[in-house]
Design a protein that fits this description.
Elements: H1 6-12, H2 17-20, H3 27-40, E1 50-56, H4 61-78, E2 81-87, H5 89-102, E3 108-112, H6 115-118, H7 127-136, H8 142-148, E4 158-163, E5 166-170, H9 171-176, H10 186-198, H11 213-224, H12 241-254, H13 268-274, E6 280-283, H14 286-294, H15 296-300, E7 302-305, E8 320-326, H16 333-343, H17 346-355, H18 385-388, H19 400-407, H20 410-419, H21 425-440
Helix pairs in contact: 3-4, 4-17, 7-16, 11-12, 12-20, 13-14, 19-21, 20-21
């Protein structure tokens, strides 16, 4: 993942150029489709419409260029001015909350995880957009329904894309540690981390407040041992033997990690991996994208794998979705719906996905055939992350409570408290239980 700070953007600038340079479509190239689309679209923008859109900061220049070209083509075809502002992961939610509370400043927010579910009464119903896109592009991945729909079955957000949180590893380091292929189970993964540390080629994953990296891998660790924050009725069940086993497992991993992971943010592991200090981590494909440009020897020596499977006996991954919401106080709801639908039409959506070099995958099934997934075999495992992902709700519903729990790092802090010795096993679980009960009361 990335925290998309200015330094981070500089690190990754142009990182997708090898693949995306030829794929980035200019505004002029988009205009033929855009003009025809605007004439026939069921969503007719209001006269004088202007849209203020907040999105996460770019991580690859080619992706940002492709996205802004889509915005410019939309403006030229419809006359709707689109003002795009960018914020880091950690600043998106506060900015969106301020707008929701004041009823001004923004029309749309392209946020992460379950942002629409933090603000469900402030979102317009976009079921017509979701139905249109689903019917045209092979249907939605099952997880899209959870991320997009409220408890009444209405779409309050459109899942635009998903970033995978999968294992990034150095091939030679794993082979030297005695593993010709990446372990498929948690027991094997722990043994790999022990051998890597012994060889001076350590693994490491964030235990700090890393909105992407910390939340994704630690929820996986909890779920793969059969532990969950709540049950299917949203009753808090974190205090369980399964949670205790997950804590013990992660503490054993932590003992083998590179020092400092308890304070890592979303950019820390990226930098350490590309610098040759880190040999296994959980991340999006951004490490590989950067290494191809700045450390070719590392890129040639790395690959990706699905998360190992633990006692649960099945994949229990959490990936990072980006969902678009439109506020119900906007003066231009039809223009906002038109923009959402337009940007996900295949003529510009597929080149945009390609420009991101595998960092973004689609919730729409038709996008599985995008050449980005087969042009480089190291990209392929990221293709299906939208289909594989669970949601922050776990066994429970993805509503305001679950959205608040992941935003407040309840699960992350539980693991960090135990691994760093701030709390013992019972104290760490009790702390998480109190936090969860406060949110789910």
């Amino acid at each position: 993942m990335s925290d998309f700070t200015p330094n981070r953007r500089s690190l990754l600038k142009g990182g997708a150029s090898v693949l995306a340079g030829a794929a980035t479509v200019s505004v002029d190239q988009l205009m033929g489709f855009a003009t025809a689309w605007a004439q026939t679209s069921q969503w007719k923008p209001e006269a004088g419409a202007k849209i203020n859109l907040l999105r996460w900061k770019r991580f690859v220049e080619a992706e940002d260029v492709a996205f802004m070209n889509i915005m410019q083509a939309f403006t030229k075809a419809t006359g709707v001015e689109v003002n795009v502002t960018n914020e880091s992961y950690d600043d998106l939610q506060p900015k969106a909350s301020v707008a929701a509370n004041t009823g001004q400043g923004l029309d749309m927010v392209w946020g992460l995880y379950s942002l629409p579910h933090l603000l469900p009464t402030k979102c317009i119903d976009v079921s017509d957009v979701a139905d249109y896109l689903g019917k045209k592009y092979g249907g939605w991945a099952e997880s899209a329904n959870a991320y997009g729909k409220n408890k009444d079955g209405k779409w309050i957000g459109i899942p635009v894309a998903c970033t995978g949180a999968l294992m990034n590893y150095r091939i030679s380091s794993c082979e030297k540690a005695g593993f010709k292929e990446f372990p498929k189970d948690t027991a094997g993964f722990l043994e790999l981390c022990k051998a890597l540390n012994k060889n001076g080629t350590p693994a490491g994953m964030a235990l700090g407040h890393a909105s992407g990296d910390g939340n994704t891998w630690l929820h996986w660790a909890l779920w793969t041992h059969g532990g969950y924050l709540v049950d299917k009725n949203d009753k808090v069940i974190i205090n369980s033997p399964e949670t205790a086993k997950a804590l013990e497992y992660v503490k054993a991993l932590y003992a083998e990690f590179i020092p400092g992971t308890a304070s890592w943010n979303d950019s820390s592991n990226n930098k350490a991996f590309v610098a040759g200090q880190l040999h296994v981590t959980c991340n999006g494909i951004s490490v590989y994208v950067t290494a191809k440009r700045e450390a070719k020897a590392i890129a040639d020596d790395m690959n990706h794998a699905y998360m190992p499977i633990g006692p649960a006996g099945k994949p229990t991954e959490l990936h990072l979705p980006f969902t678009m919401l439109t506020f119900n106080f906007t003066k231009y709801p039809q223009a906002c719906k038109a923009l959402t639908a337009f940007m996900m039409e295949a003529d510009q959506y597929n080149p945009w996905l390609t420009s991101a070099s595998g960092y973004l995958s689609s919730f729409l099934n038709a996008s599985d055939s995008n050449p980005v997934w087969t042009s480089d075999p190291k990209n392929t495992v990221y293709r299906d992350v939208a289909k594989r992902t669970l949601t922050p709700g776990g066994l429970g519903t993805l509503g305001e409570n679950a959205a608040a729990a992941i935003a407040d790092f309840v699960v992350v802090d539980m693991f960090a408290n135990y691994c760093t010795g701030r709390e013992d096993l019972k104290g760490s679980i009790a702390f998480a239980e109190r936090q969860a009960k406060r949110l789910y009361r």
